[in-house]
Design brief:
This protein is mainly α. It has a single domain, classed as Arc Repressor Mutant, subunit A (Orthogonal Bundle), CATH 1.10.10. The chain is built from five helices and two strands; from the N terminus they run H-H-H-H-E-E-H. A hairpin with a 5-residue loop joins strand 1 and strand 2. The longest helix is centred in the first third of the chain and has 13 residues.
Length: 108
């Protein structure tokens, strides 16, 4: 039996209605940065809907979904098995680890 995996596209579409849609509102940069900072501060605390309700500034839900889709596809956030959103983008830590000679990549 294979372990269950979350198909990212199916998971996103569950919240964004059914099938592909036209995006009516694109988020502004300050809105994206506000959501990124809030997710980074509250790493793993909220599910998607609860996070939207707790944002410091109100946004339309469709705009918020575009932000979440962007952050998922850019590998800055992940969604765990419980549906909670966590911040996973730490480039400074990766640079430090890449300099460590005791760590290496075995490309098998």
């Amino acid at each position: 039996m294979q372990p269950k995996t979350i198909n990212t596209l199916c998971y996103i579409n569950r919240y964004n209605m059914k099938g592909p849609q036209k995006i009516l509102r694109y988020p502004r940069l300050d809105t994206i940065l506000m959501a990124e900072n809030y997710i980074r501060k509250h790493d793993g605390e909220f599910k998607k809907r609860a996070l939207w309700e707790h944002l410091p500034r109100g946004t339309m839900y469709q705009t918020y979904c575009v932000i979440i889709d962007y952050l998922l596809f850019s590998h800055k956030i992940s969604i765990d098995a419980e549906g909670k959103i966590g911040w996973i983008y730490y480039p400074e830590d990766v640079k430090k680890l890449m300099k460590d000679k005791s760590l290496f990549w075995n490309g098998k």
